[in-house]
Description:
The chain has 199 residues and is mostly helical. The chain has 2 domains: 11-91; 112-183, no CATH class. The protein is built from 7 helices and no strands. The radius of gyration is 31 Å and the shape is elongated.
Amino acid sequence: MEMDYNTQRKKLPLPEYGRNIQNMVDYLFTVDDRDKRNRSAQTVIDVMGNIYPYLRDVPEFKHKLWDHLAIMSDFKLDIDYPYDPPTPDILIEKPNRVPYPHTKIRYKHYGFIMESLIKKTAEVEGEEKEILIELLANHMKKSYMAWNKDGVDDEKIFLDLKELSRGKLNISKEIIQLADVKISSNPVKQQKKKKFKKK
């Protein structure tokens, strides 16, 4: 007996629905009576919706199911669609171009958001500003240590903070004491080292 492999069968337009549903769609072409064909198509849509029961009653999702039926029937099924059926162009339509941000970042290890927060903090006044500066400096130290695990002097963080704020946030060790930051080793690598040592 010769085996029937999926790789030898007709390629599925939408594999997520499976071959059984595709066979149901193909069967619709054999139904001569239009009314019966319309009812059968609705049954196929109901079965397709059962794959995503939490979405099948959402109007937008129903529209999507009918679009998928059109795709699975190669846009040739003659039925009364409840929505305007799509055309084959939908399969070759190029997605809209996503604009790539061209924002310049002075220090990439701190990131763009950190630079934005520094600029905002420079505009704040009073006790809130002191709290924000301390939080920013400590986070900058963590970011720096993640990039350079050899360590960093607090003074370097304060200098970078001053530079990124264009001199508006000028602090030193005498004003703020930053927390000690320890970057833990990768636990997976540590486990591998232990196993290697045992051998």
